[in-house]
Amino acid sequence: MKVDYLNHPFASKRHTVFAKNGMVATSQPLAAQVGIEIMKKGGNAIDAAIATAAALTVLEPTSNGIGGDAFAIVWVKGEIYGLNASGPSPELLTAEAVRALGHEQMPRLGLVPVTVPGVPAAWASLSKRFGKLSLKETLEPAVRYAEEGYPLTPILGKYWKRAYEIYKKQEGREFEAWFETFCIDGKAPEIGEVWRSKDHADTLRKIGETGARSFYEGELADKIDKFMVEHGGFLRKSDLAAYQVEWVKPISTNYRGYDVWEIPPNGQGMIALMALNNFEQLDPPKWQSAETIHQQIESMKLAFADGKAFITEEADMPISTELLLSKEHALYRVKEIGEFAIEPKPIELAKSGTVYLATADSEGNMVSYIQSNYMGFGSGVVVPGTGIALQNRGADFSLDENHPNYLKPKKRTYNTIIPGFLSKGKDAVGPFGVMGGYMQPQGHYQVVINTVDYLLNPQAALDAPRWQWISGKKVHVESEFPNYLAQALQRKGHEIEVLADPGSFGRGQIIWRNPKTGVLAGGTESRTDGMVAAW
């Protein structure tokens, strides 16, 4: 891939980082350094990913936690593997039970949307299958940061305070432990203030020592079960004990000679692939062209329309993944794209806020990993005495029995978190990802286009001004987005809104590997406190 690594077309002060022995890219500098620390102790890219992910539950709890879900794409010895560590709904959680509580749709916070956490099982499974070090050893840096504490970085502090303002409005004793765990003297910690959590350290230590079994069958599972029973939640120890991660074959599409890989449903990664398929059928892309960006947005709209209508667990999807990812489907869909913005609708069928990290080592192993509690800290519910903030993934279930993502017991919901990977022929190019709810497939899509079509280096591909389709004809753009392009898009019928805060446009990481020299090139997100740690 011939790119210009020196002449940066955007305003970032960062440049692509190069290294030979190892690299970790993520949104928190201390966490990135943890991954390198583990590599220097003899660990590989998989060990580094686990260590970094565990550290991020401490170092960036505003976006993820022990009680969340995870997905990973792993490249080892020329083979690609996928891990789905998202959890299902509890056995007791039914649509009828939710309606009986007075809800017409799934609530966003509290005990109801809590599903089985997959994060600890993801760490244990990755370690057992591909790691060189023990799980206990890989979690030691995270334990250390939880016990000793660390000072909050600027972006972290902003989102911590935002969560505090949301949760202090909630009523119910189930929210009390969040304030006991994540506040200092009853308030959110300030930027630069040191926060620590002994409970978090103890929990991580137990997970490491037991290979995560304490979380699913032992002492930690008992504490989760007791708390849920006391406060009227649905999750039980039996749900935890029954949980198993799923190793899956990643899905892909070939985009202009490159294979772009994502995890299959229940994740939303296929939306990025469908959008790329759509865009590939149109006119060759032109740099900084309003017509090209219009086509990009319209291609994404159509992909999202189909994805939101049909993605859930594959067994419950009314249309196959293979059909949705076919080039024939793309050719059919792009017929709807014209000169002006459209209101996207899904195809008609025949009747019948996440943390992302990337790692790479000198052996050629690479990991694209993502984990999240969803919507920041998640449900707002913390299990007392554990530091475990529980996710609220169940918020995405539908209570409409005619929708594919209708709530059922033991079912995995549509999941927003997605890791990405790029390869060409038999060679790995590398892991990439952009976190941030429904921005994620849009971020993946724009990063791939920036890389493949415009030959931008990793840092430039991340720094390029982004757009985000919201709904209908509504599109948000960053303040750095060229004004002349925004005006041209408005003339094409798009309802453009310029946002001063870049926080909603995703936060990404990239590591590319030169197949001939083994040299690693990494970029990190300028929209957050990110860092590329290299060795």
UniProtKB/TrEMBL annotation:
A matching Pfam family: G_glu_transpept
GO MF assignments: hydrolase activity
Domain of life per record: Bacteria
Alphabetical keyword list: Hydrolase
InterPro entries recorded: GGT-like_enzyme, GGT_ssub_C, Ntn_hydrolases_N
Protein name: Gamma-glutamyltranspeptidase/glutathione hydrolase
Organism: Ureibacillus acetophenoni
